[in-house]
Amino acid sequence: MVKEIERVGIPVVHICTVVPISKTIGANRIVPAVGIPYPLGDPTKSPEQSKKIRRELVERGLKALETPVSGQTVFE
Amino acid sequence: MKGVMVTNNYRCLEKWEGRLRIDYNKEWGYLDVLLATRDYIHRGYFLLTHPLAGSVKPNQTPFKSVILAEESLEGAEEFRDLALIEESIEAYRKFMKNRPLPGWPEQTAEDFRTIDLSLMEGVMSNPMMNRR
Amino acid sequence: MKLELGKIYISDVQFAEKTYVENGTLYVCKAEIERLVLEDERLAGARVELARPGESVRISPVKDVIEPRVKVEGGGDIFPGVIGKVGQVGEGRTHALVGATVITCGKIVGFQEGVIDMSGPTAKYTPFSQTNNVCVVIEPAEGLETHDYEAAGRMAGLKTAVYVAEAARDLTPDEVVTYETKPLPMQIAQYPELPKIGYVHMLQSQGLLHDTYYYGVDAKKFVPTIMYPTEIMDGAIVSGNCVAPCDKVTTYHHLNNPVIEDLYRHHGKDLNFVGVILTNENVFLADKERHSDMVAKLAEFLGLDGLLITEEGYGNPDTDLMMNCKKVARAGVKVVIITDEFPGRDGKSYSLADAVPEADTMVSCGQGNLIVHFPPMDRLIGTMDYVESQIGGYAGCMNEDGSFDAELQIIIASTIANGFNKLAARTY
Amino acid sequence: MAKYRIVHYINNFFSGAGGEEAAGMKPEVHQGPVGPGLALETAFGEDYEVAATVVCGDNYFGENLEDATAELIGMIRLYEPDLFIAGPAFNAGRYGVACGTICKEVERELGIPVLTGMYEENPGVDMFRKELIVIKTKNSAAGMRKAVPVFKNLGEKLVKGEEILGPDTEGYLERGIRVNYFAEKRGSERAIELLLKKCKGEECPTEYPMPKFDRVEPAAPVTDMAHTKIAIVTSGGIVPQGNPDHIESSSATRYGIYSVAGMERMDKKDFMTVHGGYDRAFVTEDPNLVIPLDVLREMQKEGVIGELADYFITTTGTGTSTGNAKAFGEDFVGRLKEDKIGAVILTST
Q1: Partner of D15 at 20 to 30 A CA spacing, among A26, C246, D4, D34?
Q2: Which of residues 37-66 of A touch D (CB under 8 A)?
Q3: Residue A24, pLDDT score
């Protein structure tokens, strides 16, 4: 899906748990997520903390979207 | 090392049950084993053996075994496993379209199990498989 | 390392009381060969039959084909570590009965054994319709285990070939060809202006019916190594597999490796043939990564400008082929791949099971999915009982008159992926 | 001896009915050759006749695919043709697609040989080149004169069941079929010759091209986030409670587009996950772990981002083939463009 979106010129950031898969499917801007059962946040912590983690990831995603890249780039 | 063998060959189950996790299903066909393998890769597992191991083509043998692990043993390029499994599934479909698997008599089926088992024996005896 | 290959041309084969060569005819003693083969208690039966070019003869299921060769000077035995003693080969003088072969056939081991027609429309696809063949039809002992049957069949062929080749020991060859490769620094210095070319020879090594032996070592257990090209001409590599009939590299094809032969033909003219890198095609992906790393390292170590890669088999080996190609190319070495193709029955699918952008120069040895018609033959060596389950055959492919239809895959060495044949494929 | 019968298909323009204004015309049939068919009949000579010409407007064909095809097949069948020719369509896209479609259908329904012709860049070429013999033509009707003998030659061969040679020899567009032949030199020698050329930096054409590697260049970055509209896409299997579109838990063949209009966060009362690839407990409790709606709404209010699409697009990633995923993307991307989405956040488990 990533390639099809990007092909029409819309930048995509892929926030994902398994970076290698993201690379395979052709994502160019990649942000590693927290983990498989809970990619954006950490429910084992307090709801506030979980949300804070989520916010940080989304902010990193937005930053990736604002960054020029020449090929597949992982934003850690 | 946490490994799993995905197989529809009961002789692999008999031989290695207890050595590593065996995801065995006697109802599975060759393609089902490949699809189950792909599910493991999607969940973050790494291929240890090539999905098309054995140059018996997919429309010739009913049996297939693949070993995966939660960690990678080599510094492979990152998209390798997903590409490998997709290519293998593609190859399966190509050959089945060509000519579907014959209904083998039991003796022939047993020979195919032996070949599949032998392919896995080569791997299971590899010292890297005993890494902890 | 320097080897003189003395070629004795054989144009006919006949039975006789003893085994000898006279005026280009190979005479073989049937009883002697059968006795020799049956020394192995794993085999219950052995029958020798002859097949000559142009005869209405079909041979099936074929396991291996071997050219009779004998070591005359320079030390070592033919097929070291397998039949002969372990010891260095590739030097001195070897005699070969060119135009003769030993073929093993009999009940299938694992469906991957093929067909040879000595005449008719399919004869053109296999080189062995042009040779004078001593066929050993074997029968396993009751209840023999599959691995043992494979080993017994392999040894029967090699033993027979060594026995027959003794007839060549004291003959004066019709032609002597000298092959020489010097130690690396001297070899490079000999033709400093020519491109330094190597050859990556990938050996089938996946398991039962998929093994190859190098000086008796099971190829899946070695790491990539460097070989003088002449070693292979003395039987350093023995086939122990039936991958698929069409792309099986028989022991004959190891002895007569076309890439090595043709590289020597160009040696000193427009290239400098520096050596051979041997590697394997294991099932274990860690082995694949490690060994392709090592192939690239050895290519760089040898200072190669270019190299050729050949594979044996389909599927799993395609991944080794592509890994080798990619890593060698990234090490700055120019690479050309030789392969055969399986594009499906309609010929429209992608032909290999793996692909990398670095594989931008490939030579095709033809596609194996083409359906061909095999007319009835007057005489059958072996059995047709298994045609429907042999690779390339299918349920209902056999007709009552002995004719059948099957994919080109079923013919021994028809699309062999080392460039031995002229068969190729192009896009329509 | 009876003549071999050809039925010829042309569009509104070539039948003389007119251009765009006639593109809606329904199928009709004429006895004998019409327009370009005259040149074909002359070229094929005495043993052949163009028995009938069927005509259909390009728009009518495109908009009524099934009806138009059925009607045309009915007309063609009556003439019991030995050969069917469509076009050539040259560079006309809709005409090319119509020629390809009708040829395929005639071949399937009537079991007779079919032929068409197009300019290489006609979109019909990529759709049909693997299945049909598409004769290579110029990009305008001025190329008819050169195309006619090619039609004659191939048409005769097809009718007589003679061997069709390679695309360059015969003048059709490459079909991608691998065909065996015996080369002059053996493979090892050819490989060495290629390698020597490669070492010299000369051209060394491969005998077997690799498939195309599909990589997409990164899109340009967002320069003004505060005025950009963002959409969320996920492969994490979040769907409205009850999974109304029955999206599969693995090996998905569908995707869904669901509203988040007016919502401040993803509420577990409204959404669930069907993803089969992981422990669903956490996400079931808090779907924001996959669709970060809560923080995106915050950012929207804060003016960090301009706007948020009032829907998200979802499917499951486990077991889903790359082919399906590609098809989903191709399907929904039009909507993203329409809605002026400036950037996408795609989340995966």
Answers
A1: D4
A2: 37-41, 43, 47, 50-51, 54-55, 57-58, 61-62, 65-66
A3: 64
- The CATH architecture assigned to D4-170 reads 3-Layer(aba) Sandwich (3.40)
Phi-psi region of C303 (alpha: psi -120 to 50; beta: other; left: phi over 0): left
Phi and psi angles of residue C27, each rounded to the nearest 5 degrees, phi first: -100, 130
Q: How many domains does chain C contain in total?
A: 1
B82: containing domain: 3-130
Peptide bond before residue D88 is cis, with ω within 30 degrees of 0: yes
Which residues, 6+ apart, have CB-to-CB distance to D212 below 8 Å? none
Q: What pLDDT score does C162 carry?
A: 97
Residues in chain B: 132
Question: Are the beta carbons of D235 and A15 closer than 8 angstroms?
Answer: no
D326 vs C397: CA distance, rounded Å: 39
Distance CA D38, CA D48 (A): 12
What's the pLDDT score for residue B16? 93
pLDDT of amino acid C43: 95
Over its C-alpha atoms, chain D yields an Rg (Å, rounded) of 28
pLDDT in tens, B21-33: 999 999 999 999 9
Q: Say whether residue A37 is in contact with chain B using an 8 A CB cutoff.
A: no
The shortest C-alpha distance from B132 to chain D (Å) reads 25
CB of D8 within 8 A of CB of D53? yes
Inside any domain, residue C159: yes
Q: Which residues of C touch D187 (CB under 8 A)?
A: 258, 338, 363-365, 418-424
ipTM, 2 decimals?
0.86
Q: How far apart are CA D159 and CA C242, in angstroms?
A: 43
Inter-chain touch A23–B79, beta carbons under 8 Å:
yes
Under-50 pLDDT residues of chain A: none
* Mutation for C interface: D181, D197, D207, D214, most C CBs within 10 A: D207
Q: For residue C427, is it within any domain? A: no
The range of the structural domain enclosing residue A68 comes to 2-74
Q: Would you say residue C365 lies in a domain?
A: yes
CB pair distance less than 8 Å for D319 and B39: yes
Q: Backbone dihedral region of C366: left (phi > 0), alpha (psi from -120 to 50 degrees) or beta?
A: left
Token pair recorded at residue D11: 């569009």
| Mean pLDDT value of segment C102-127 | 89
Report how many domains make up chain A.
1
pLDDT band at C391 (very low <50, low <70, confident <90, very high): confident
Assess if residue C310 is contained within a domain: yes
Average of pLDDT values for C376-391?
A: 88
Q: Which residue has the tokens 């190891």?
A: C254
Domain that residue C56 falls in: 2-410
Domain ranges of chain D: 4-170, 225-347
Side chain identity, residue D297: R
- In C, minimum Cα distance to B93 occurs at C344
pLDDT at B77: 65
- Work out how many domains chain B is built from and give that number: 1
Tell me: the pLDDT tens digits for D51-61? Answer: 999 999 998 99
Task: Kindly indicate the confidence band of residue C111, based on its pLDDT and cuts at 50, 70 and 90.
Answer: low
The answer to whether residues D127 and D155 touch, using CB atoms and an 8 Å cutoff, is: no
Alpha helices (runs of H) in chain D, residue ranges in sequence order: 12-15, 36-44, 58-63, 65-77, 93-110, 123-128, 144-160, 167-170, 187-199, 281-285, 293-302, 322-338
Sheet holding B21-24, edge to edge: B21-24, B3-7, B65-69, B46-47
Does residue C221 sit in helix, strand or coil? helix
Write out residues 253-282 of C within 8 Å (CB-CB) of D.
Answer: 258-259, 261-263, 265-266, 270-271
Indicate if C135 belongs to the active site. no
Q: Which of C70-79, C146-155, D318-327 has the highest mean pLDDT?
A: C70-79
Say how many C-beta atoms besides its own lie within 10 A of residue B47's C-beta: 23
